[in-house]
Amino acid sequence: MITFPKSIEAAASSPGQRRAGGTDVQELRHLGIRSDDLVDLRDCPGLDRFEQAEDGLHLGAGISLTRIAQDAAVKEQYPALAEAAGGLATPQIRNRASLAGSLLQEVRCWYYRHPDQQCAKKGGAVCLARQGDHLYHSCFDTGVCVAPHPSTMAAALWAYDALVELDDASLLDIPTLLGDGTDPRRTHHLAPGRLVVAVHLPPPPPKGELAAYGRAISRARAEWPLAELVVRLGLDKKGEKIDWARLVMGGVANRPLRLSVLEEALVGQPPTDETFARLAPMAIEGAKPLPMTGYKLRIIPGLVREQLLRAMEGAA
Ligand SMILES: Cc1cc2nc3c(=O)[nH]c(=O)nc-3n(C[C@H](O)[C@H](O)[C@H](O)COP(=O)(O)OP(=O)(O)OC[C@H]3O[C@@H](n4cnc5c(N)ncnc54)[C@H](O)[C@@H]3O)c2cc1C
Predict the structure, then answer these.
(1) What is the predicted pLDDT for the residue at 154?
(2) Atom from ligand 1 closest to the CA of residue 96
(3) DSSP annotation string for 15-81
(4) Could you give the CA distance from residue 165 to residue 88 in angstroms, rounded to a whole number?
(5) Which of 4, 83, 104, 248 to mutate to test the pocket of ligand 1 (most atoms within 8 A of CB)?
(6) Is the CB of 174 under 6 A from ligand 1?
């Protein structure tokens, strides 16, 4: 059965799987992984809200990734978020895909998506990728399931300290929404039945920021990344030292990773290529690659250095 609720209250109280853009939901149904009732959010008012509020920018859960990528206010105030939204998937997917759907999509693991395979995410005893083909999977071991977290927007929104607003008006930060990766059955920790209504972005830093988003990818487009990185930097008044840094990496663990140790090491350093080249290898500290994912450890330092340099291009 499919319903088209006409209010947030009705959508929240309708049993079944929510469908926004449907780009992931439909594939899972097609593959026979999901077959529950559908709650289509097409007619639900308020999910397309785009509001400059006192506490920052509120983006409705149903706003498309294309709009986020192209909106002038997002580009100016949250540049790496706009770049991330515009850099994933394909133009067709970005036109259809919603902000909430992009956060709550399922992993792309071929074992999970195979109708006949009972992996740990589907309640099976083991992670089949861990024992089998995991070429595109994690190189940080953060839990039983080794499929990388699929959401580029989760990494970008975490880098901007975004909060997710639910239908009961509660707010979740991104790490809470995603969980710590230890429960293989949960790609996110949204309580069953809850509806995401909007995402709140805090006001941009008063002195501005330098930012970049980039990915290492196995083909030019239409692919999830081998590794991806959101970088935000603030410089001191003279532009000679890094005042603060925020780096969140995706594609390498079953949840995005905040690179706190590298962030701390960057603070107080001159924002030069010498600094970036020297410190970038810190991004792989704590990595524990699988037999087939060691190559990612060779990619990550280059990606980090490249995106730090790209962020600095904004200072020129
Ligand atoms: C070739 C290709 C490449 C891709 N590359 C990337 C990539 O690099 N990075 C990336 O992040 N993604 C990538 N994607 C995935 C794409 O971004 C997602 O499929 C899309 O963002 C999902 O959004 P949607 O609105 O279609 O979600 P849907 O398919 O409608 O829903 C996805 C999930 O979110 C839930 N949901 C949706 N809205 C709500 C709500 N308001 N409240 C509660 N639950 C809700 C649904 O129930 C479902 O569980 C790629 C896809 C393709 C086909």
Answers:
(1) 98
(2) 26
(3) -SEEESS-TTHHHHHHTTS--S-EEE-TT-TTTT-EEEETTEEEEETT-BHHHHHH-HHHHHHSHHH
(4) 23
(5) 104
(6) no
Pick the closest to residue 79 from 172, 150, 159 (CA basis). 159
What size, in residues, is the chain?
316
Residues of the chain with pLDDT under 50: none
- 2, 14, 23: residue to mutate for ligand 1 pocket, most atoms within 8 A of CB: 23
pTM for this predicted structure: 0.97
Ligand 1 centre to CA of 37 (Å) is: 18
Domains of the chain in start order, with CATH, are: 44-201 (3.30.465.10), 210-313 (3.30.390.50)
Q: From ligand 1's centre to the CA of 61, what distance in Å?
A: 11
Tokens 């071929």, residue located: 110
Instruction: Measure the CA dihedral 212/57/190/22, to 10°.
Output: -80
CB 225 near ligand 1, within 6 Å: yes
Residue 49 near residue 130 (C-beta atoms within 8 A): no
Identity of residue 140? F
Distance (angstroms) between ligand 1 centre and the Cα of 310 equals 28
Give the separation between CA 104 and CA 97, rounded to whole angstroms: 11
Which atom from ligand 1 is nearest to the alpha carbon of 26? 29
Torsion angle, alpha carbons of 282, 284, 286, 291, to 10? -160
Tell me how far apart the alpha carbons of residues 114 and 135 are, in angstroms, rounded to a whole number: 16
Per-residue pLDDT reduced to its tens digit, 252-306: 999 999 999 999 999 999 999 999 999 999 999 999 999 999 999 999 999 999 9
Cα separation, 34 vs 25, in Å, equals 8
Separation of CA 114 and ligand 1 centre (Å): 18
Relative to beta strand 50-53, strand 38-40 is unpaired
